[in-house]
Amino acid sequence: MSTLLPPGPPPGSPPPGPPAQDERNPAPLVIAGIAAVLVIALAIGVPIALRSDPEPAGPANLDAVKVYGDLGNAHTIEDVDYPQVPPVGGPHDPVWLDCGTYTEPVRDENAVHDLEHGGIWLTYGAAVDEDDVTAMAAKLGHNSIVSPYDGLPSPVVVTVWGRQLELDGADDPRLGLFLAAYGDGHTAPEPFASCAGGTQDPGGGGGASSGSGANV
Fold first, then answer.
1. What number of other Cβ atoms are within 10 A of residue 86's Cβ?
2. Which H helix or E strand runs over 80?
3. Disulfide engineering: 101 pairs with which of 8, 32, 48, 146, CB 3.0-4.6 Å?
4. pTM of the model
């Protein structure tokens, strides 16, 4: 008995084509899709990341130093309403404050007399601890006053006559730059005078009778 075979393609017919789309392996299409998503994500994310990087900090400088002129230096036994905190100059008590580090606030009018003599006044707020105060005081020359001060605009403020700089803290590198630029007292009306021999009373006493440092 003979076996019947299915009829073949008629003569001259093209060979059968590839299998239908749904019969192919889907893996290449999935990989291609993932790659496209990654390319888009990188194209969007990389520029954003670059823009969000913080700019590197520049070297420390004295651009933030505030300069004051026309301060006047008359003597007065009255309290003075100074416009700066702490004051940078102006009318002041006839008695200056003795050099040194004080553990309580000092009277403005006496400390301003020290500034007139070319002294440095370093003031600090409550957040600065004792070790930091000692470290800062060691950087100053002998002609200086260090004292706490209420209501400062920054943790530390360094002042000479007519010049003032707000510092971020005891380790602010600008302190050294300020001292190098202004620590010699050249901005003061009576530069190179000493603060030695003034009153050691932080309250000043309010007048020339409060100590031996009356200016003549």
1. 23
2. none
3. 146
4. 0.71
Tokens representing 25 are: 């392996």
Ramachandran angles phi, psi of 157, nearest 5°: -135, 130
Three-state secondary structure call for residue 124: strand
Residue 157: CA count within 13 A, CB half-sphere: 21
Instruction: Report in angstroms the alpha-carbon separations of 124 from 1, 88, 148, 164.
Output: 116, 15, 5, 13
Task: Give the separation between CA 145 and CA 161, rounded to whole angstroms.
Answer: 13
Strand order in the sheet with 120-124: 66-67, 163-167, 156-160, 120-124, 144-148, 100-101
Q: Cα(165)–Cα(181) distance, rounded to whole angstroms?
A: 12
44: left (phi over 0), alpha (psi -120 to 50) or beta: alpha
Cβ–Cβ < 8 Å for 110, 199: yes
pLDDT tens digit sequence for 91-105: 999 999 999 999 999
Residue 14 has pLDDT above 60, yes or no: no
Which helix or strand (DSSP H or E) is residue 132 part of? helix 130-139
